[in-house]
Amino acid sequence: MTDETIQLHDRLRALSMNLWWTWHPEVVSIFMDLDPILWRKSGHNPIAFLNGITSGQVEERAADLALHSRIDYAFRRLNEYLEARNTWGKIHCGNLSMRPVVYFSAEFGLHESLPIYSGGLGILAGDHLKSSSDLGVPLIGVGLLYNQGYFDQRLNADGWQEEEYTTLDVANQPLELLRDHSGTPVLVAIETRKCRLFARAWQVQVGRIRLFLLDSNVEENSEEDRDLTSRLYGGDDRLRIRQELLLGVGGARLLQILNVHPGVLHLNEGHSAFAILEETRRVMKHDNIPFRRAHRRVSLYTVFTTHTPVSAGHDRFSSDLTEEHLGVLRDDLGLSHHDLMALGRVHTDDDSENFCMTVLALKSCRRANGVSAIHGTVSRLMWRELWPSRPEEDIPIGHITNGVHALSWLAPQMVQLFNARLGGTWPSRMCHPDIWNKIEEIDDGELWETHQNLKVRLIRFVRRRLAAQSERLGHTGTIEEIDRILDPNVLTIGSARRLAAYKRGDLLLSDYEHLVSLVSDARRPVQVIFAGKAHPRDDEGKQMLQKIARCSFDESLRRRIVFVEDYDYNLARHLVQGVDVWLNNPRRPLEACGTSGQKAVLNGGLNLSVLDGWWNEAYDGANGFAIGHGGMHDDPAEQYRRDAEFLYDTLEHEVIPLYYDHVDDIPLEWVQRMKHAMQTLGWRFNADRMVKDYAGLFYLPAALAASSEAK
Ligand SMILES: *Cc1c(COP(=O)(O)O)cnc(C)c1O
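# pyridoxal-5'-phosphate complex -> structure
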């Protein structure tokens, strides 16, 4: 081996150990060029990739393809990024640098190769870390390492969802085990009334941000507890409270071991709310003050983001489970069982009420928010009983609308177009509307062609997945048959989401005849790509999925309605980059925000959505399409019927005619709408704007309040 090869391998290794590569396509393309088949086989995981190829092979390929300079350049870019001094955060968040924001989340969606997320909540947390990194906001993430992740989805021949679990190989992950000075792995311990729970901790580097993941798979635990963190949202209440104990209390203890003093505790959803109790214990001890004062002090720098207007989405634990798991901590806090339960109860004296994590969080923070304007309102109404004497507008829950990490979701071809027309520095100025006005200068034909190319890429990807799917099911389809599925010249609608009842993933299928007529129209047909997982115990969701799957098996719809298995980061990226229209039709007002439509916008997709979540504040009459006028009905069945009618109507009278109205092979009016959508929405619904909002409205005032209180 020559020095050169060692360097080359080391550089690739260094690139693969920082998830910065996930939003830099020029790094992805290095691995892809080195060995496209191995890249796909390793699940787009550069560490598995490097473990599957010798350094000799790397050197040979790199020399053949003249990759050295690209690898050097990427390596230099990463180091410049890590060392940069003049970030937005340096200028605006200086007072957080000694005491950073600690961001707790039960899931983080950073890339398909690190499957520790299930859906929107995790993707949002991943995007939050990436934008915090780009902006240079001092922030640390805390989560759990699920070594079996959520689940892999397979459909059986009847269209019924089956779940499979694969175990993560930590040797193929960008994980570094945390050790103390003597090299011994750090072990976090938590005592319950019946046992002690232990966890080790891993560090993941996300650009400039450190993410710590706790993992119960250690010898010190009982066999059963070793599996505590195996699966995301997998178990019953007992498993759930133990996971949340590890996340909240374990996470806060880990910070103490690492000597990290949080300037702000940001709880992304209620799962991690026990962190407040552990932090309060620390402050009581450190400052020698009683519970009430310490709890009040912690609440000054605690920020809570709630994500769901659906009641079942808020964890609640029985009095017994709470006592078993929090009892020892409550002794330290000097609280009676009743006092502790009261912190998680709306009606403090109602002994029949379970302990609710959201209530604990709301009672323990000065700053709380929903994730869109409409969700802020819904949340205030939902929790008004906690502040019985206040009118709705004085309930202390505001909103910060979610956004997406642009460089993670934009197609590389689109980035090139932006670089050429908006200037290479557009990413650092993406929150300014004037940058996006330059979209106007992109040539209509060029934009359309780029979009069409991405659609072709999506269709190829879908065909490949469907071929594997049908082979597994023993369908005797031929290659030619697969190649007749989907057509890039047909209006392509994407619809992918968690298959939960309120999301109504089957709305478009409600009138079968109507659907058949739209799909098989000779001149102006439509095609739909569906994807999404149902929770393993949600039979209603699985039935909805089955309905969609059966439609896709149906002869008369077969080539134009498809269901692609195993919705994940990778499939999401292909979909949002390639579809013409993103369809979202939840039951208003139950969609907290929704973010996939924002990903589509960046890539030139148009939203067709119920006026709910982010779309309720984004739609201006010309930057996409609305289903209905924002009406609601007490009877869900009636609302379903009306919205279905609106959906067909909008498709037939607005979307389809506009799409097929071509001038010189280009749908000019449609392209105008694409541009208008990018211009009006791009600067608002990105995660940089979101993180800047959190910093300005929450983090900085919270840190300030806490530090003046401490003086
Ligand atoms: C963006 C994304 C989501 C969230 O989508 P919604 O619009 O909130 O339904 C869920 N899953 C994956 C894989 C995503 O990429």
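# post-check
The chain has 29 helices and 20 strands.
Residues 88-402+691-710 form a domain with the Rossmann fold fold (CATH 3.40.50.2000).
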